[in-house]
Amino acid sequence: MLTAKIPVLLLSIIFALLGVYLILRINTAGKKIDSTTLRARAFLDESFLKENWILLMLTLLLFIIRAVVELIETFETSIGTESSELADEIIVLGILVCVILIVHKWFRLMSPPRQFE
């Protein structure tokens, strides 16, 4: 039976694998870059810092929403289990997307700047 939960779970797996790949690439790039240069790149790029804080805030808000929904479910049984499971999976997917975006921003920061010829 194909439900809405299956595509959400498949997307979660794909995004998690993408995150692992990017983190491995960041790890190898990190061995090639000087820590002073990395700090300078991170803190001189205002949009990098701003976007990271926004994504971290969204991630934490999604965690809070998930915890509140689970707390409500603990005290009430009126919420349908299938719809609450789907909502839970969508929230987890949102958290994963925020984390992947943060990892991607770090990947771009760690990658050497491209030279245009």
How far apart are the first and last residues' alpha carbons, in Å?
54 Å
What's the helix-strand series?
A: HHHH
Estimate the strand proportion.
under 5%
- Principal-axes shape call: elongated
Provide the residue-averaged pLDDT.
79
Largest sheet: none
Total strand count, please? 0
Helix content: over 70%
**Radius of gyration from the CA trace?**
18 Å
Structural class: mainly alpha
| Number of H/I helices | 4
Q: Are there runs of 5+ residues with pLDDT below 50, and where?
A: none
Question: How would you describe the overall organization of this protein?
Answer:
The protein is mostly helical. It has a domain of 73 residues. It has four helices and no strands. The protein is elongated, with a radius of gyration of 18 Å. The N and C termini lie far apart (54 Å). The model has no long low-confidence stretch (mean pLDDT 79).
Key words describing this protein structure:
117 residues, mainly alpha, elongated
Write the layout of secondary structure elements.
Blueprint: H1 5-30, H2 35-44, H3 46-75, H4 81-110
Helix pairs in contact: 1-4, 3-4
Q: How is this structure best summarized?
A:
The protein has 117 residues and is mainly α.
